Amino acid sequence: MANGPGHLRTPNADAALQQAMFALNNKRPDEAERIAGDVLKRTPRHAGALHIVGCARLMQGRAQEAIAPLEAAARAQHNPEIDVQLAAALRHAGRIDDAVSRLKRATKRQPPFVAAFHDLGCLLASLQRYDEAAEAFRRGLELAPMTMQLSLQLGGVSMQCRKWNDAKAAFAQTLDLAPNSPEALFGMAKAHQELGEYRAAADYYRRCLRVKPDPLVWHNLGRCLLMIGENEEGYDCLRWAVRGDPKRYGGVLGTLVKSPHGRFFLKPSAASRFIREPKS
After folding, report:
1. pLDDT tens digits along 212-225
2. Domain closes at, from 23, 56, 77
3. Does residue 241 share a domain with residue 203?
4. CA 170 to chain centre
5. Cβ neighbours around 133 below 10 Å, total
6. What is the CATH number of the domain that holds 8?
7. In the structure, what pLDDT confidence band is assigned to residue 10 with cuts at 50, 70 and 90?
8. Phi, psi (rounded to 5 degrees) for 24
9. Which domain holds residue 133?
10. What is the pLDDT of residues 256-279, one digit of tens each?
11. How many domains does the chain have?
12. Taking the model in full, what pTM does it have?
């Protein structure tokens, strides 16, 4: 028997939607859409079935077709999770302003839905609206301070705004939760480096290398070490950067020439030998 216009409260419908959700969670969106569609044939305004159909279409890359069922589900149930998924469909369909508006609405729902703040901040950041993005991440962190992705994203947008101290605070919060996060370690190192705090930056770059060796990290560590006069170790780091990514040769050469404790070469061949060949 129906229990209101948007709900079908029968054992068969509940079981069918559980099966559809299972299919959706197991990356079988075509099956989920078919099962939920059968429920909608009997009860066209069933919010749960509309929600699943919309999510299944979105998962299949059919964003434009996902909008109508998700809008209908959102009207029937003021659910921030549905708002977030509708916003994703709107964004993929090119309706960016509508997606932003829908995510802002989702952040006002009660109880708060942390994913809404995350997705709003990420969308605003992709639009280069960094101050607004940072505000969304901060609001999310006030509600869920243990959410690592929010503090990590806040650090990233703070760097985009060149607010290095804000970035350090955000990455420190991330590292409290995940001490070996390579993204947070790199971000913390970069923020220290931009502030001229080269020794602290070098320490974070070393920690980052222990977790995830990367030519860019070797390069930046080499820069920092040259800035504090630890030349031989700095040269070795720059050599590792080039070995890991030969395309970095030009950038490494620029670092060697421009650093206060760098090197000057009369011949390109001498520079190439110095950078590419290990110290004897």
Report:
1. 999 999 999 999 99
2. 77
3. yes
4. 14
5. 25
6. 1.25.40.10
7. low
8. -65, -45
9. 83-178
10. 777 776 555 534 555 566 666 655
11. 3
12. 0.83
